[in-house]
Amino acid sequence: MPELRKDPITGRWVIISTDRARRPSDFAPETVSISRSRFCPFCPGNEDKTPPEVLAYANEALRGQARWSTRVVPNKFPALRVEGELDRQGEGLYDRMNGVGAHEVVIESPDHEATIATMDEAKVAEIIWAFRDRVLDLKKDRRLRYMMLFKNHGAGAGASLEHPHSQIIALPIVPKRVQEEIDGARRYYEFKERCVYCDILRQEARDDERVVIRTEEFLTLCPFAARFPFETWIVPQRHESHFETISEREVYNLSWTLKTILRKMDKVLERPAFNLMIHTAPAQEPASSHYHWHIEIIPKLTRVAGFEWGTGFFINPTPPEEAARFLRE
Amino acid sequence: MPELRKDPITGRWVIISTDRARRPSDFAPETVSISRSRFCPFCPGNEDKTPPEVLAYANEALRGQARWSTRVVPNKFPALRVEGELDRQGEGLYDRMNGVGAHEVVIESPDHEATIATMDEAKVAEIIWAFRDRVLDLKKDRRLRYMMLFKNHGAGAGASLEHPHSQIIALPIVPKRVQEEIDGARRYYEFKERCVYCDILRQEARDDERVVIRTEEFLTLCPFAARFPFETWIVPQRHESHFETISEREVYNLSWTLKTILRKMDKVLERPAFNLMIHTAPAQEPASSHYHWHIEIIPKLTRVAGFEWGTGFFINPTPPEEAARFLRE
Predict the structure, then answer these.
(1) Minimal CA–CA distance to B71: which of B126, B136, B135, B14?
(2) Quick check: B11 and A96 CB within 8 A?
(3) Within a domain: residue A190?
(4) Strand-strand pairing, B232-236 and B102-107
(5) Is the confidence at residue B57, as pLDDT, over 70?
């Protein structure tokens, strides 16, 4: 019998098909393979093909290959621009605003063929530090209310360049889905006087059915009301609303965790395309007791029927308990 | 300068890239082409390969080819089942419910290669009648609170069979995005004492910038805060919250409108895959002054970065004014 499950944070119901559960081999994912064939603007030597960098690290160990190990540059084709005033205007019943914001690219490595799953841990840690440092810098601009950190890996997940990179979009508004998560977490807090994510951590650790990786610093799990097959969250054990408060210990632990879960996905799902998003609290708001930053990873396994966008209604053919079992093994 | 626009119903902001607006030729849509190669369970003669029909029309003109012109059958692999009680259960902080509901397939024509764009108007009208009749029947079951009517056209839009068909999912809950639209429309009504969709109809008809087709019964437009390039809505001129109240005159007008807009999309966008959704009010609720049923059509033109699901944040590279201009011509 199929089952309807409710996400305890947002209140969204999803259908979990328990009858004809799909195993990894039932999907035909597009395996991401990297072929250094065409000109790549992110490779060392082509630094003049991107706008000037806003951040660069030069790790000792990498000096031989390139003069940088991680670079952050403004997106050459930005969705938003930093210049200009935040001008809000009405037009009959409609509202519009200037597209003020920032759009940056984190070039994760000089190595065109590296992936987080195959990089060494120190390299992954460096990328996390770059995220942290850019958020700390961008939030000084009080117009920027939300920093979206995300990674599209593989063409199937929307990446237009294959050189390893992530993106940062700094927005003058808080996106609706993020606000919804925050509002849901606040309602739970008002009712229970506890953080819903902290409660999830406790219940998942006890049940152990949906846990994939457990460390002192992070719990990696397939969520109870997963929208997508093999959807996976990485939740810090320590309650903190803002990603940028991450500690040194957590950075190193997260870099191991990230590598491990992506290596597991590569193995179980044959190097799938994926989207990775950091969910964090709005930049200009103080630390909150109800929201808890975390990472969501969604491998692209199915050619999703776009009607989910229109209705917010998801049918997931792989119960998260099964997904977790495959990823644990 | 890119622009942020707010959807007047849901309050969702989207980025409209006005700088580097993408024209139809900038997309590389996967053209949907139909090739009758493999065995098709929806073709005449294979009626025993589907569960027994719950509705069938036999149009005079079609009697030669098949004993039916439109057939509705339960989905052989349903996401939900009609049997059983609506059993709600808790499990720690989680909630689950039996997957009670219905999942039906509307086989739109005996002709494997027909599409709505190429069918004759009377045929399209018959499909709309089938939708209406199934909703009227399903809503007798008081457990079913929402009927989702949708069509995935082409593999790129999630269709697994190419024979022309649509789907009906009857749910024991109201999906979150639908509820959000209803709540947004209610807030507008409380504030203005007018329906937001009726106001949109008036403003769009006057501005004329985003209108694609205008008839006495329906306005077809690219919405102000379109999430996707060439996203198109068909809104009935007469205020009515529930689709199933559609009049005979409206059915015939809608069949012409649907054919016309899909033919235009086929021409301008090279037979794209698309999703079509009917947005209507919850089945068990009385007619409301604030909600207004309508159709949304989303051609699949870009390989969307899945992070939109995670954040609810959309970047649309084609301003709806441009999209409407291309579709009008």
Answers:
(1) B126
(2) no
(3) yes
(4) unpaired
(5) yes
Answer whether residue A89 is part of any domain: no
Please, what is the average pLDDT of chain B?
91
Catalytic residue among B103, B153, B163, B165: B165
Whole-number Å distance between alpha carbons of B208 and B216: 15
Q: What is the pLDDT of residues B1-35, one digit of tens each?
A: 789 999 999 999 999 987 666 778 777 767 888 77
In which element (H, E) is residue A94 found?
strand A94-98
Assign A81 a pLDDT band (cuts: 50, 70, 90).
Answer: confident
Do A158 and B8 make contact, defined as CB atoms within 8 angstroms?
Answer: no
ipTM summary value: 0.90
Whether B199 and A93 lie within 8 Å, measured CB to CB: yes
By C-alpha distance, the chain A residue nearest B17 is: A79
Whether A88 is in a domain gets the answer no
- The DSSP string of B56-69 is EE--GGGTTT-S-S
Q: C-alpha dihedral over A172, A175, A181, A185, to 10 degrees?
A: 20
Q: Which residue has the tokens 């810098």?
A: A137
Identify the domain containing residue A281 by its residue range.
Answer: 3-33+41-77+97-328
The answer to whether the CB atoms of B175 and A15 lie below 8 A apart is no
We report the CATH number of the domain holding residue A242 as 3.30.428.10
B261-293 pLDDT, tens digit per residue, is: 999 999 999 999 999 999 999 999 999 999 999
Say whether A165 is catalytic: yes
Opening angle at CA B168, ends B167 and B173, nearest 5? 140
Chain A neighbors of B7, CB-CB under 8 A = none
Tens digits of residue pLDDT in A272-284? 999 999 999 999 9
Residue B37 falls inside a structural domain: no
Which residue did the predictor score with more confidence, B210 or A62? B210
Is the pLDDT at A66 greater than 90? The verdict is: no
Tokens representing B317 are 């590279």
Nearest by CB to residue A81, choosing from B2, B92, B156, is B2
pTM confidence score: 0.93
Rg of chain A in Å (alpha carbons): 20
pLDDT recorded at residue A151: 95
CB A217 within 8 A of CB A254: yes
Residue A60 has pLDDT above 70, yes or no: no
Measured between beta carbons, the chain B residues lying within 8 angstroms of A292 are none
Looking at the structure of chain A, the number of domains it has is 1
Q: Show the beta-strand stretches assigned E in chain B.
A: 3-6, 13-16, 55-57, 70-74, 88-91, 94-98, 102-107, 146-153, 165-171, 211-214, 218-221, 232-236, 274-279, 294-299, 314-316
